[in-house]
Amino acid sequence: MVAVPAQDDLRRVLDDDGRVLPGARVPDVSDEYLRRIFDVMSLVRIMDDRMMRLQRQGRLGFYMKAIGEEASHFAVAPLRAGDWVYPSYREQGAWFWRGYTIKDFINQLFGNVADPVKGRQMPVHHSANWLNLVSISSPVGTQIPQAVGSAYAAKLMGKDDVSMVFFGEGTSSTGEFHVGMNFAGVWKAPCVFICRNNGWAISVPSQKQTAARTFASKAVGYGMPGIRVDGNDILAMLQVAGEAIDRARAGDGPTLIEALTYRVQGHSSSDDPSVYRDPKEPELWEKRDPLNRMRTYLRHRGLWNEAWERELTERYNQEITDALVAADHLGAPAIETMFDDVYEDIPWHLQEQKAWLLQQARTRSPHFHG
Amino acid sequence: MPVMNIIQAVNDALRLQMRAEPKTVVLGEDVGKFGGVFRATSGLHEEFGAERVIDTPLAEAGIIGTAIGMALYGLRPVPEIQFSDFIYPAFDQIVNELAKFRYRSGGQYPCPVVIRTPVGGGIRGGHYHSQSPETLFIHTPGLKVVAPSNPYDTKGLLLSCLRQNDPVLFMEPKRIYRASKNEVPEGDYTLEIGKLNVVRPGTQVTLIAWSGMVSIAEEAAIKADAAGISVEVLDLRSLMPFDIVGILASVTKTGRVVIVHEAPRTCGFGAELIASIQERAMEHLEAPISRVCGFDTPFPYTLEHEYMPNADRVLGAIRQTLEW
């Protein structure tokens, strides 16, 4: 079982029930902004539930839920549109917040002709250059030095864009984490590192990833601030991320943020947590559910009512249904597109292979669900 | 026309491109004030400053990883890996990330990074300063692999690489970095990537080489000529893509082929060339295609000259293919 994480240096604004803690400073954001965040956070919850059911029905090859971790995705909310985001594979909220549509999302999962990545990658490996959201990679941590490169490039080109990169606590064990943090520190790159500490890297608990007391403390070795925040507290997330982004944009360098949260369900649709963890552990964390806490807070602030949430739930469910129906009618990408985008132009050997493939008898991919 | 060595040609190409294209930046270990351990970036720091000639922390995965992010954002990074033997910490970044960014993003994220790295043995460098790892990268869809053999080609090919939009591994033959000299135009010129060069025309045997082995092949061809054998020497210049048309033009003329490479024999690029030639020109072949290669051992230190192909071994292979 995951030990109760140290609380003493944890930044919080809301208590576990969603009430503002005594003496806590509430970030200065508009009512409308908070309602939009709740709206998108709800979409993530609804989407995850629908897609996992679809996966269980055999209509989707693979899926990864973010249930219980959604508030941490909104570290992107204080970013500008021109800033860059390098997500890991569990930040659906970051995609929807920046404008990735339900259709884009579902078409990517299906790998159909309308998939923004042209059916080249398995589900949840999105990419959206029009939103400065960089392609998701399965090997963990590769995106960390890349984000630092983009951040430093902005600085070199005299722009004030910031890069933000997401990864799990397990990824802090990789060489790429060290390399990326170190380069960022030395270069004073305008980069914000979001370590989602959700307690588990598939079946391995966070205590087996580090002997350090906290993941945030690793920042010391790289000459940057390390902040721990309650990752299930949307207001604290917005506050801490906003401060780090401002700091980066002002030229004061990178920040590591450890967002303390919890992976309430399995790593992916292929996982079975009952094999390796006590079922009581997720129950403890369900009491700190970020969506419930935000709902309570909004209700106290007079920004939430049942009719509104019912309306948005129905609306999103309908949009998802519509997107699924549309996706069902969209075919696979044309066979010859397999050879596009390997290089800018198709070299002779790929032209030859393409011509050969097109002469073969056609088969239908058993993996295509469209 | 000035005479340059390969180091000077690299330096000249980088300087020209950095003057013409402000987004071009150089990064790597010791590339700044020191100008690189082989001095290929000498003087660039003075001219373009620390922001465009970047001394990085000592980590290859970081050099390539950050170069990728720079390229995605809009710069034209030219990372240097000090010795190709040190490239493996960056292998995942190169193979899974750099080479695939365009493809896996559905064409949304081209990633024009040109990695320069010295290759090859013969410098008393042992296992960690002598390898020729081209096959690993030729076998990686999405990468171009370019391997010049002399200063003129180096400058023209490097300028071409810096002006196209695919990631490239640009392999420089370090043994002859300074020994190889020829006339190099002062101004701007480019050579087409994917086209070979007929270094020496001939009629009886086609000898295929690249990088540091081209001079060995030429030496063997001169010896063969003295023995009354006419050898055509092809310098591939570019390994991915490689010039199948140019190769077949020669092979259909000679009917006999010898391939020389420094890298280990098994699954070396020679094997792919043999397969590609026999698939397309079987009826023209008079003898089995033979290879003179490095051995399937790690690169040795004391015995490096026993390991590396030399002109006599190549001449032996030329004679054998003629006698078959």
Short description:
The complex is a heterodimer of chains A (370) and B (324). Chain A is an alpha/beta fold.
Task: Describe the structure in your own words.
The complex is a heterodimer of chains A (about 375) and B (about 325). Chain A has about 375 residues and is an alpha/beta fold. Chain A has helices at about 30-55, 70-75, 90-100, 100-110, 145-155, 175-185, 235-250, 280-285, 290-300, 305-330, 350-360; strands spanning about 10, 85, 165-170, 190-195, 200, 205, 225-230, 255-260. In chain A, the strands form two sheets. In chain A, strands 1-7-8-4-3-2 form a six-stranded parallel beta sheet, sandwiched between helices. Chain A has a two-stranded antiparallel sheet with strand order 5-6. Chain B has two domains: about 5-185, Thiamin diphosphate (ThDP)-binding fold, Pyr/PP domains (Rossmann fold), CATH 3.40.50.970; about 195-325, 3-Layer(aba) Sandwich (Rossmann fold), CATH 3.40.50.920. Chain B has a five-stranded mixed beta sheet with strand order 9-11-10-13-14, sandwiched between helices. Chain B has a four-stranded mixed beta sheet with strand order 5-7-6-12. A three-stranded parallel beta sheet of chain B has the order 3-2-4, with helices on both faces. The termini of chain B are far apart.
Q: Low-confidence parts of chain A lasting 5 or more residues at pLDDT below 50?
A: none
Topology of chain B as a string of helices (H) and strands (E): EHEHEHEHHEHEHEEEEHEEHEHEHH
Beginning-to-end CA distance, first to last residue of chain A: 41 Å
Neighbour order of strands in the largest sheet of chain A: 1-7-8-4-3-2
CATH superfamily membership of the largest domain in chain B: Thiamin diphosphate (ThDP)-binding fold, Pyr/PP domains
Number of strands of chain B: 14
Protein chain pair with the most extensive contact, residues per chain: A-B, 47 and 48 residues
SS-based class of chain A: alpha/beta
- Overall body shape of chain B: globular
Helix/strand structural class of chain B = alpha/beta
Q: Spans of chain B of 5+ residues with little confidence (pLDDT < 50)?
A: none
